[in-house]
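HUMAN: Ready with one sample?

ASSISTANT:
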Amino acid sequence: MLESIIKAEKMEKRPFEMFFLAIAMTMIATALAAIVSPDGAGHLVIAFVCIGAAPIMVRVITLEEKESAEVHENEVRMLARHGDMFAIFGWFFLGIIVAVSFLFIMMPAEMEQTMFGPQLQELQSIKGLATGRVTSSCGIFCLFQNNFGVLLLVLLFSFVFGAGAVYIITWNASIVGVLIGMTAKAETGNVILNYVIALPISLIKLFPHGIFEVGAYFFGGLAGGMLSAMIVRGDWKRADVFKDVLAVFLIATLLVAIGAIIEGM
């Protein structure tokens, strides 16, 4: 239903609206997850957000696939032309962070494990393949290796399911949100004031490398979708189409490398 109410074509012109949509989706998803599975809702929150966002994101990626199939250009121009889609995924990521972090500081301590148990467990280990190492100390090559593995997952999920980037971005954003909420709660004094301070500081720390990682996952999702469409249309023998898919994936790999260098410095 959401894809009928919220048009991807309109979202391209006003990408910042995805920020508010992501907040609303996360709030609704958390409430539904608490009702459906009150004893353990962490993964359900992610699932419900993905269910809500996937139709819109698939439409967005489909539009980009169509443009890429019709226009053959170098990597720099391709990167610039997909800037609005880059922004949509970025606002989506930011909206989930804000919503999850706010929900975390507002809920009682005894509900934290119930609502965000998987995220808390991941923060304790930071070993999951689907998580960028935004909270751990790791060298540049280690960061690149981990995030490139995530990129391959996005490519595979998008190839098979059509919206692989949505799950990866939602999961990582929820972990960052929980981390910000934990930081605010750990400080003494007023938790709301601590949150107001912790949120912008955490986002400023995250932004320099996070923007490249989110962009990489978007382009990875786009490459997977293009590859799937190429096979369905029977274009897999066309060298120019395969070249476009490879170019998009190389852009994603470059963004992962830049993010790893910035984060590892």
In short: The chain is about 85% helix and 0% strand. The radius of gyration is 18 Å.
